[in-house]
Predict the 3D structure of the following.
Amino acid sequence: PVPDVESDLDLTSFDGTTIRMHWFPVEDATASAPRPTILMGPGWSLPGDTSLDAVGVLGAINISSLRTAGYNVLTWDPRGFGQSTGTAMVNSVDFEARDVQQMLSWLSGQPEVALDGPGDPRSGMVGGSYGGGIQLVTAAIDCRVDALVPVIAWHSLGTSLYKSEIVKSGWGNVLASVAATRSVDPHVTSANEAGKTTGTLSPEDVEWFEARGPGELVESIEVPTLFIQGTVDTLFTLDEGITNYRILRDKGVPTSLFFYCGGHGVCLTEEGDLDRLGVAAIGWLDRY
């Protein structure tokens, strides 16, 4: 427990890194009446959400709406961000995904958490952008996650950030600048500098980003997944979500694809009713 902050706990991960967690169980959840749990990851460079009243992902999915739907909620500061230690490795299957595995194991020991078996919490994941990508790499290596709702996530950082070997320098500058005071892997900085000065990336940087996944890891996902993608997203375009969706659909995994006018971009037309995204997301979690 973190002194003087009731919701906060520090978890020692597999390599000694301290992960700051924020725990919001349903108020009437008990050992005799446990509830399923949703893990909600934040965007790049951000700490985990801690506000019970703030508008969440897409203005619909937040701690309050999930708890109202009957779910315990666990958020966290990814390594390198917020109050967590370590270095951000860009949702690496070998680092950030293993951090989530440690959190799943912690959840399995909490009395308020419903279990599907020993060490196996009944759990789903939500979150947008960086919080969407972590769902895919985690589910690829840990079958304890029962349902996913990745929002404006990607298939490959090669095809999304370096499509046709063209650097998205505008987005690169944004992503590098918002994390400038954080602890991030040097490849993030070197790739951004190379993109600005030469317009191309070194083979080493390309290999490093492509290894961040999820890429081929999507083939290993077996759990029901609702992909939510933005039609005006210029960072992680529709093609990224479509690729992931088709992989799971062709494997026979329950999956669906939901488009909305938004994402990493500006909607210049009528947005429509964004509440339907939250309804769809919670409906997906309720079903699976």
